[in-house]
């Protein structure tokens, strides 16, 4: 196995959970995986236990709770009892306690709660804090696709997560970037506590990557591909991203991304890009 890469987590959102992928990741030094109760049709945990159960002790496993199977469609809930029970179930299905459990997209339920949002969010966070205190998981965090609604809900009574995960990269709007920075500040999250996800906006084959050259964000970026450069730039958008969750079913693709971790970012270009995003968001001329 190569040297460990704690800055990269193998995301299993669209993965087939194949054994070759997990062994390949370990061989590359990627020792963390990220999944969720609702991945693979709510079967992710049981499939992992069945197909790679012997590998799980060698992996740092993060998962998420918040989505539940419903009679007609998937439901989302911030009910603290359901969340706590979901963490218990995750440990049973995996055959071990997860190292990290995220409250998954709390904004999904907050849209329908109205004035009770602050209370519901606080109770949801408290359920995961309690689960961690009881030893059902190592630590807990918040994973949010759209973190903007969360910023105004935090007060001194809101439990403080150990990790915040949100979208990252060149296709993320300034509203989301600012929200992550604000949550990082208000929670007082230390360096290493902010994770990114979806660094390519969901698909490296999107035509946008043929029209935009992310190598401008790297010093000596010509040595890398556009995909590699976009991945490296995602560690700076938003600020202070320590770890990226990235999905693939091919270990070779993962190996290509690991190469660019040592590349040096052009901080001036990153600052200019954020300024341009802000101008566009406010309607000012570029």
Radius of gyration: 19 Å
Regarding CATH, which class?
Answer: Alpha Beta
Envelope shape: globular
Mean pLDDT: 93
Query: Which strand order does the major sheet show?
Result: 1-2-3-6-7-8-9-10
Question: Count the strands?
Answer: 10
How much strand content do the residues show?
Answer: 5-15%
Q: Tell me about the largest β-sheet.
A: 8 strands, parallel, barrel
As for the CATH topology, it is TIM Barrel
Domain unit count? 1
Distance between the amino and carboxyl termini: 48 Å
Topology as a string of helices (H) and strands (E): EHEHHEEEHEHHEEHEHHEHH
Total DSSP helices: 11
CATH homologous superfamily descriptor = NADP-dependent oxidoreductase domain
Decide which structural class fits the backbone.
Answer: alpha/beta
Detail the poorly predicted runs.
none
Percent in helix = 25-40%
The CATH architecture is Alpha-Beta Barrel
Describe the structure.
The chain has 286 residues and is an alpha/beta fold. It has one domain (8-282): NADP-dependent oxidoreductase domain (TIM Barrel). Helices cover 40% and strands 15% of the residues. It is built from eleven helices and ten strands. The chain has an eight-stranded parallel β-barrel with strand order 1-2-3-6-7-8-9-10. A two-stranded antiparallel sheet has the order 4-5.
Main attributes?
286 residues; globular; 11 helices; alpha/beta; single chain; 8-stranded parallel barrel; two-stranded antiparallel sheet; TIM Barrel
């Amino acid at each position: 196995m190569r040297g460990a890469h704690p800055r990269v987590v193998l995301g299993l959102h669209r993965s087939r959970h194949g054994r070759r992928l997990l062994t390949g990741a370990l061989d590359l030094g990627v020792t963390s995986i990220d999944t969720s109760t609702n991945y693979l049709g709510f079967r992710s945990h049981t499939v992992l236990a069945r197909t790679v159960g012997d590998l799980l002790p060698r992996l740092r496993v993060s998962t998420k709770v918040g989505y539940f199977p419903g009679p007609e469609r998937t439901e989302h809930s911030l009910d603290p009892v359901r969340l706590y029970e979901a963490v218990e179930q995750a440990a049973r299905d995996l055959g071990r306690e997860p190292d990290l459990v995220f409250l998954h997209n709390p904004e999904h339920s907050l849209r329908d709660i109205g004035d009770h949002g602050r209370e519901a969010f606080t109770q949801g966070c408290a359920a995961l804090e309690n689960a961690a205190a009881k030893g059902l998981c190592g630590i807990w965090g918040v994973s949010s696709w759209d973190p903007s609604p969360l910023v105004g809900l935090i007060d001194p009574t809101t439990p403080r997560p150990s990790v915040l995960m949100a979208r990252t990269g060149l296709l993320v709007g300034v509203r989301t970037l600012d929200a992550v920075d604000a949550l990082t500040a208000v929670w007082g999250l230390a360096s290493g506590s902010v994770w990114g996800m979806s660094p390519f906006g969901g698909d490296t084959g999107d035509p946008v990557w043929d029209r935009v050259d992310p190598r401008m964000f790297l010093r000596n970026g010509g040595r890398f591909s556009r995909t590699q450069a976009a991945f490296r730039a995602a560690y700076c958008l938003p600020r202070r991203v320590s770890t990226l969750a990235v999905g693939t079913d091919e270990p070779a693709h993962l190996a290509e991304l690991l190469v660019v971790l040592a590349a040096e970012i052009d901080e001036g270009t990153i600052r200019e890009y954020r300024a341009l995003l802000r101008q566009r968001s406010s309607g000012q001329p570029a």
